[in-house]
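Here is one such tokenized protein:
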Amino acid sequence: MTSQRTNLSISTFCLYCTLFAFSPAFALPPEHKPLKPRVPIQHRAYYRSLQAPMYQDSKNVSSELLEAGASIYQRICVNCHGESGKGNGISSGFLPILPRDFTNCLFQHKRTDGELFYVIKFGSWPMPPMVPTITEDEAWTVIPYLRTFCKK
């Protein structure tokens, strides 16, 4: 049997936790340096020039490939990166920094498909490596879909 004092302490603790969780001071930090290269310097030139085996330009692909990429995104990426690609998926609140915001066109224009492939394949803290969860071909397939989040 709990005492009245214990119940009051638990209630007070819960109130403080709620106030802290919903205060402006408890906002998640923004995505970590979005323009900083994620590919190690010794591999950067190779991955910057790497091309997808199934398309030349990720901005000009068939609707079938975009649909396949969307399907992979919904299965693997949406929990962290969110439906709209802003890095606000349901799991993002559990991460130390927000996931990549794919609507950030500065980021999109700065990264080649090969660099995106590297991050999908090998990860970049806090993102884990996605290959072998998905195949390398699936990693390449999701990139054109990621590019659709930048509207400029």
